Give the backbone structure.
Amino acid sequence: MIASAAFALFILCPRMAGMTSVISNASHVDLVKVVVFGTLLALPLIIAMALIFQRYGLVVALAFCVITDFAAALAMREISMKAGMETLIIALFVIMGVKAASMVSGWVS
């Protein structure tokens, strides 16, 4: 239960809040409805991402996440070169952050 609670707290992020607001406003759908139904639809994707990460590693899991970002943009009909570049840059920073965290934590232990 503690691990699940930690995951629930970890999965929330400012980017998610911002994108939820953008999607709600762009689609003219109530914010709470977007959150509830989006969460239900996201559950199998979160499980898939975790399994992909466990089996194939960070880069493949991140590629899966980038694909889902582009799918979301296409579903909203709001994809642009700027959004694509932002997604790529965020993905690169995530990879660098994970690598740096592993390296730094190796010095501590």
